[in-house]
Design a protein that fits this description.
Layout: H1 2-26, E1 37-42, E2 51-58, E3 63-76, H2 80-87, H3 91-99, E4 101-114, E5 123-145, E6 151-175, E7 179-200, H4 207-218, E8 226-231, E9 235-256
Antiparallel strand pairs: 1-2, 1-9, 2-3, 3-4, 4-5, 5-6, 6-7, 7-9, 8-9
Helix pairs in contact: 2-3
Length: 257
Amino acid sequence: MKLYRLLLTALVLAPLITIQAQDEEATSPVKATPEPNMLKVNLTAIPLKNYSLQYERVMSKKLSLALSFRIMPNTGLPFKSQILDMVGDDPDTRDVVNTFKMSNIAITPELRWYVGKRGYGRGFYIAPFYRYAQFETSQMQFDYDNGTGGQETINLSGKLTSHTGGLMFGAQWPLGKSLVLDWWIFGPHYGAGNGDFTGLSSQPLTPSEQADLRDELENLDIPLTTKKVTVTANSARLQLDGPWAGIRAGFSLGFRF
């Protein structure tokens, strides 16, 4: 959380720092610097139904601050076929993957250090960042035996929240006077996530049905994650806690102003 506070503080102070830097540059015999503001859209996220905008403000020749916001409307899992291949033949987990739908948002502040000679938001950069993400679902279905040879279904809904920190390696180039191309080369991040999902039964569950539903939830295969399962006659609850990781990569196209 210290990285998160540092980045947010820097974002608040960015306009003051930029004005000071520009005043100093105006008194020195150098060429005019590019416009300090950039607004970019992540092109590679669109096919995955993720819509991501980033605002970047140049603070000085070497430093800039950026803030990204990503949203994904309610949809099925990206790369579902690859996930099913990883799951293997476990029927319970495969059913969850096939029926699962989710939406998510993410907010990512970052501090960029441009290491080359050009600077001012151009060239290769290294960027520590913090990411807050929230994933929400209203359709996580689990089947259980009803004790008479048939099956019933309960639908869980809830959200998972993650806090991660990472380091981005990237490069940014101008395309003419007003356009910029931002290449997120490799940005691994790691942290923790926790989720809470609950569902109500349409009718009271017998002890046998409760036991079978509890087994279905306990057998859900989620590596490196601690599960807590609670089943009553009227409801089921699945709580998750464990590490969370990801990689940022892609191309963004934007305007400089």
